[in-house]
# Entry
Amino acid sequence: MKDQHRSRTLRSRWGAVPGVRAVASYRREWLVKDLVAGVVLTTLLVPQGMAYAELAGLPAITGLYTSILCLLGYAVCGPSRVLVLGPDSSLGPMIAATVLPLVAADGDPDRAVALASVLALMVAAIMILASVAKLGFIADLISKPTMIGYMNGLALTILIGQLPKLLGFKVDADNLIGECAGLVRGLAEGAAVPAAAAVGGCAIVLVLVLQRFAPKVPAVLVMVVLAIAATTVLDLGEHGVSLVGELPEGFPPFTVPDVRLADLAPLFGGALGIALVSLADTISNASAFAARSGQEVRGNQEMTGVGVANLAAGLFQGFPVSASGSRTAVAERAGARSQLTGVVGAALIVLMLVLVPGLFRNLPQPALAAVVITASLSLADIPGAVRLWRQRRTEFTLCLAAFLGVALLGVLPGIAIAVALSVLNVFRRAWWPYNTVLGRVRGLEGYHDVRSYPAAGRLPGLVIYRFDAPLIFANAKTFRDEVARLAGADPRPSWIVIAAEPMTDVDTTAADVLTELDESLNAHDVHLVFAELKDPVRRKIEQYGLTRTIDPRHFFPTVEAAVAAFRLRTGAEWVPGPDAPATPPADEDRR
# Structure
């Protein structure tokens, strides 16, 4: 019995692993489609992997190592059937901003790789721990407007940073302004290589034209093949065009990265930002593709899958990875049905490194720059920024601030600014929520905003006030001041009815403010009355002891009930608002 129980337990545990479930439920008719999709996907994985590695300031081969291991890691632990992970254009500048300042002055590539691998391991640890703690909601810390600004700033940073490489020279700068100055200086001094500029320019045009007019054609692959052919035929290496050169042969070696203890703190700061962006990318891409296939998005499992992918990459000389919308779309269009597509892609990259490591020897560096630049253009969302300007200027301001943060201060400060702005925007809305006075409108049920209906009827001696937020420490004084202003009107009201349906909470600070406010109002024969207060909030008010100052009889289930009680007590009749017709609405109009 014990053996049977142990066996069932083991089967249950293994069955919880997404990769095991995928194998158990795999359908034979998917095999050909997954194999074909894997071949198609590889044509994109190889050039993008190398290009994004160099974007991160690392040797091109590390992009291939990363692609292999993250695909295998996610295939085992990732819940999505079609999501493709790998080096990403949005993470490259963040990796470079974290790693390159720590690299020795001579730019030792081995040290850079070790630092990037530790960065991947840290991202893995953050992701897995966040998954255990069920913190998938953290991806919501960046609002859409700030993400648009961040991505636009990132696109500009990548574009300016890759232009010198596209033109055949280098610029040594730490920020966008320095890179712009270096680019202009290099052009003025004639540092550009005409052959390199021609290759890079033609590569960008070719990719953009094919993506626009022949989206089913693998544009990057076509461009890479033509660039290698041009190098071979025209001997571009002899004309000053830098080439990728021979790649190391064989499977990526298992390596425990060795870094200094002093490097861990700055690496951890970068890892937090990378993990946040990676999580946001992964959840958004997983949601988009799951909606097409009818799958359910499992945020915490996605974090585990991405964490394991980063763990595998970090132990084999790789760097942090994220989900890729473009590569996932390519796999999906090619007919991918499961993570076998990614496994096939990883296997083909290994075969290439083992059998033909010199395949990309003659690939021009400007062609890799073109891959990165075209990818950066897809990051930008100029129409989104314009829409924010037209629809809501405050959110456009957040977008612009995030853009300037990335462009002027750098990628890592930019993501910190984006998160901070998103959080502050939430706080701002809670601090200064919308609030208004309500009145009765002819022909409409209920009570309505007098700003929208200036002719709305009022009851002399009664004010119906709505505060559209939880009452907490941040906005309690705003609430107090507005109620005090209403109570000080001439003539002074005797009841201020709080239409409390939007108040989902009252904290202890707000409770103290309510106590002081009610005592102050009572001294002037003005009474606070609550209507439509939710039961959990009512229980909190009673727990705080507020019913010692606020009359328990001044709590009503509806605004209608409060109004009826006031009219019964005072005999007040409705009067028109300032813009109403001469005859006030009759009671029958409200039924």
Summary: Residues 435-590 form a domain with the Transcription Regulator spoIIAA fold (CATH 3.30.750.24).
